[in-house]
Amino acid sequence: MPARNASARSKGPVAGQRVAITAGASGIGRAIADMLLANGAKVAICDVAKDSLADYRKVHPGSPAVMADVASDADVDKFFKTSARELGGLDALINNAGIAGPTGGVEEIDPADWRRCIDIDLTGQFLCARRAVPMIRKAGGGSIVNMSSAVGRFGYAFRTPYAAAKWGVIGFTQSLAKELGPDNIRVNAILPGIVKGQRMDRVIAARAKQLGVSHGEMEKRYLERVSLRRMVTHEDIAETVMFLLSGAGANISGQSIGVDGNVESL
Question: Which of the residues 56, 156, 162, 222 is marked catalytic?
């Protein structure tokens, strides 16, 4: 269970916590899983990438890793049944799964692509929360961390499905924080900015193509809108998750926390 007093904190920030992480086999999710496991947590992940899941299982053979699409009710049910069985309960949920969605003008976006982005980035968080909350409540309380984005604070031209979903995550987070606070369940959102890695490279490439500029020029334009003029790392976000799950975050709930170098605009 989450640390609530000095004695519990002395055993480590997240030691013994049972944590479910969606899209935990690579990228941000993998960094979170690796860090929590290294600090004594018990972790179950799901993902849709077979190769990434195989690598995760090789590195963490004792940590449950389930093939599951968060947009599928049946897959989500399977993931949480496995988590309950293998972890013996749940103290925290990290709603990390998400996709970039399509890039294009509103009249160019295929409705199927819109729906898929919303289904994964927003509805998937609802499907996971509805299964996780009874387990966390039974544990006496805990924490939910929902992954939003700096996009959740700004409008984002040509990325309307993604922006709509990430704004929705913030509303979902604040509403759940009010609903679940009496059960000692804290709910917060993390808003990553420009995160270094292959996914951001693809986003920059798509936007560069949309605007007819080079990849290098597009990256430069992105970073000019970040006060610190640099990208953040997967580990930066993982550190923030660990803080929120720890006793140090015991009175933080309903917050949208930017881990973005201060994105000024998009």
Answer: 162
